[in-house]
Amino acid sequence: MLFRSRTGPNTKHALVIGAGLAGSAICHSLASCGWQIDLVDSAHGPAQGASSLYAGAFHPHISMDDCILSRLARHAFLAALPYWERLNSNGFALHWSRCGMLQLPLDLAEANTLLALPNALGYPADYAQNVDVDEASALAGISLSSSALYYPQSGWLRANSLVAAQLAAANDAVRPYFGRKVAQLDCNEGLWRARDAQGHVIAAAPVAILANAADAARSEEHTSELQS
Q1: Which of 13, 21, 123, 228 sits at 20 to 30 Å (Cα–Cα) from 137?
Q2: How far apart are CA 27 and CA 151, in angstroms?
Q3: For position 110, what pLDDT does the model report?
């Protein structure tokens, strides 16, 4: 969620609250456009919440009607892969593997629908393809009992390595405030201010971005200042 003061100075300076996957991605993107960022998080370092999970899978989501979720997942998936490759090639190493992923049908009825999707929707083979039971078993390294969908470019990634890479790539553009819990976010004289429980200002900027599941409170008297 983004808040911008209508009366604030026209400077490239943002306050980002949350130092997980979302917050670090925002920092990297803003830094690449010449912004300075004050990054605030209640933990004593980045990626200490959900982004600290050991590993997560990345893969397409496909459906016969190509629903909004499938389209969103497709665009995110195809944008993320070259972005992560660029981070790697620029020396910001990720802990990940594009080892491929199999999606197994739950039963025969689902198999008939699921395995028809790549051809019906015209997906290229490097995005999604059908594999028979022998191919699926060889890819899995164990004996399987059915055909499957195979996503060749899918795999796993350690989220904290992506957070670290994005913040490292942002470099000196980011000024961190770790171990500082935001109790209130308010706007006055063109600046958004993140305050602690005692009302002390942690950091302030003309633009504020909540990247922590909206965990920071906001003063009701300043809602007229919002532009989201």
Answers
A1: 123
A2: 30
A3: 82
